[in-house]
Write the structure tokens for this entry.
Amino acid sequence: MINLVKPLKSKIPQIILILLFLIVQAYTSLTLPSYTADIVNIGIKNTDINYIINTGITMLVMVVISVIAAVIISYLSSRVSSGYAKDLRKIVYRKVLRFSNHELNEISRSSLITRSTNDINQIQSILGVIFTTFLFAPVLGVGSVIRAFELGTDLSWIILVTFVIVAAILVIIVVRVLPYFKITQEILDRMNRTAREILIGIPVIKAFVRQDTEREKFEKTNREFLEVNLHVYRTIFIILPALSLVLNVMIVLILYFGAYDALNSSLLTGDIIAFIQYSTMIVTSFIMMGGFLIILPRILVSGRRIAEVLNTEITITDGDIEETPEKPVLEFRNVEYKYPGSERETLKDISFKLEPGKTTAIIGGTGSGKSTILNLIPRLQDPTSGEILINGKNIKDYRLKTLRDMISFTPQKAILFQGTVKSNMLVGKSDATDDEIENALNLAQADFIDTIDDEVTQAASNFSGGQKQRLSIARALIAKHNFYLFDDCFSALDMNTEAKVKNNLKTLSDDASILIVSQRISTIKDADEILVIDNGEIIDRGTHEELNSSCSIYHEIVKSQIDSMEALQ
């Protein structure tokens, strides 16, 4: 939880101001009942109009000061809580950006969305309550107790009994609702996950006419969320009428027993009125703190969820090497990898090299581990055993920025960001000129672009699959790198366009290495070396001609694709 407090350090001056104004507000509130008593005991008793007017003006000044203090407290508390939430979201966001695939499997993406939004909003709201209510309530309560005892009455037992009853009600409510707050957040995670899956899978849902099924699945989660919230808030809302009843009974008791003291002349009428006001303030302060205690469990749940993100140990950490080697050679040496929780290795004894000026290709069946190999190079994951070396040094010894600056990675799924073509190209090189962008688009055969300022909608829905892939390839080619990794990113291109793009890749620097993962023979047949992978192992390697004659699995892939192309003709 210490990480949750750190963003408040910069807000300490504002917090001190809030505390000062809270004291001012409490002091002015505590003086009002004594002035009321004086008006009754002195002004009305002696029919002294001037005293009543003067005391009334003093009370009015105190009220104005109290209101001004309350406004300033609200303003400062809103700034502190909002600023804190902003800083905390930044910290969480930066932490999540450092997550590897392993951490993203530990905490789901839908849960991260909920934690970064709803949970932080919950903490922000409680901060406002702390500054405006929780800190004010104890000061008001203690001050009221002191002032009430200063009146010298024998009615203090009424306050004690009221306090015990109020405390009992609050404890019962908290115990009843506490378990449900965690359940609520977990259901909210599921609701986000369900909504996210449905929104992403809308084309599939429509294609298989599954609208009713998916609607029922979401409604089930939504209904469960409704029922839990109804149970929580029905229980919480019992507090208001219950405490209101206790408060009014307390006032009746004070009037009843205070009347005897007044008749016996042991207590003045004004003091009874002041005692009622102080007693009301005491109970009100208990209610304010009780209200805070009721929402505290939900905030603790949110705090723990945020702390879980901040305390997550990053498995992919920086090395010390900052210099980029000249003409780097990347080598896989006896690399193995097993996904967390998996019973068998995804990769076994993988060894090969990426050398400057050469193109290496990987082919194999679905699930054979091709994409996993590419993920290991920029350290999106680390191998379970074995080493990945650059010029003889383990890539773990390099700073992540240095390592990833050497690599251009085009993932299997073309991911573009909302904005323009230019803004997406600048992701590949932040200082790219318009000419460099145009050149990269030409290399990727993105001839469907009118200007680099063409709009890219959310999820690039205004482009086809092949167009997205070409833009993704262009982004990968805009900057000079030592290693260009292409993960089956030519699959949506027609043969003619693919041939042109591959031909343009030959214009890359002689110091660069290219690694292509594909299931299409046409994509990899010109590679200097082709690795054939089956069940996570390299079963053969060589050129297209060598493998076609010596590797039965590769020959079958070639034959099946040739037969398919002939059947289409």
Remarks:
- Residues 49-97 form the longest helix (49 residues).
- Residues 91 and 169 are 39 Å apart (CA to CA).
- Confidence is low (pLDDT under 50) at residues 564-569.
